Amino acid sequence: MAEPASTVVAPVVVDESAETRPTLMSRKPWREALVVLALYATYSLVRLAATGDLEDAEDAAHGIRMIERWLGIDVERSWNGWISGHPTLMLAVSLWYATLHWVATAAVLVFLWLRRPRVYRPLFAILVGTTMSALAFFVLIPTAPPRLIDGFVDVLEAAGNLGYWDHGATGEDGLSASTNELAAFPSLHAGWSLWVCLAVFASTRRLWWRLGGVAYALTTAAVVIVSANHWVIDVLAGWALVAGWAWVVSRWCRRRSEGLCEGTTAVVP
């Protein structure tokens, strides 16, 4: 049979019985932890260093808005205006944005390492590729988020007195003290949430878990838009990075049968 022209990555759901699962001792957890910490340190340092110029970042944001208007997907202002009238939802959105981005991704990564080692490696490669590619965009194309543009409400700042995430007007407290304010494009919140969804599909065939993964990715996309932290195109770009790296890993694994690609396959859409 001829090789299909295009494929979509989908790490196979593998049998994780006691007979096939590698032991924790044989997999050196300390080495894995050092790798993750080193990658996180690199991510944090590059993200903070990629400050950029505010005027250039605003120009990039206005360019994104023009493209969105042409495509008819410029919903940020209406969504942000709607949620600004609902304080309880603003609090929920702020908590989701400030917390689950890290907690859900880390929890799924740990779960994969402990319970799904056969798909951990390719999925970890997708996550790393996505994150490092996003860092390149942060350096090359600083982009202002909607909340730095006139007419938008900074939801996290408005609800900041109720949590730890206050952006603050001066950028000296809360999350803004430890993040790059001009790293809107692409959205890693959106990208990582789609990666979580992909990991869920790779780990289980249970319908409710898979629906939960899809709901998590879609809800995160809505959260970053209504909170005025990302443009719609930022979300699409974050998803595209994950899809692109999934394709790259899939192509690599078609040529390998061990190591990184053990337990991984590509399927025809």
Structure in a nutshell:
With 269 residues, the protein is mostly helical. It has 9 helices and 2 strands; from the N terminus they run βαααααααααβ.
Low confidence ranges: 1-26, 168-177, 263-269
Distance between the first and last residues' Cα: 16 Å
The number of distinct β-strands equals 2
What percent of residues are in strands?
under 5%
For this structure, the quaternary state is: single chain
Number of domains: 1
Total count of helical runs of at least 4 residues: 9
N-to-C series of helices and strands:
EHHHHHHHHHE
Shape: globular
Percent helix among the residues?
55-70%
Q: Which structural category do the helix and sheet elements fall into?
A: mainly alpha
| Mean pLDDT across residues | 80
What key phrases describe this protein's structure?
269 residues, mainly alpha, two-stranded antiparallel sheet, 9 helices, disordered N terminus, disordered C terminus
Protein architecture, described:
The protein has 9 helices and 2 strands; from the N terminus they run E-H-H-H-H-H-H-H-H-H-E. It has one domain (53-267). A two-stranded antiparallel sheet has the order 1-2. With 269 residues, it is mainly α. The chain is globular. Helix 1 (29-49) runs parallel beside helix 5.
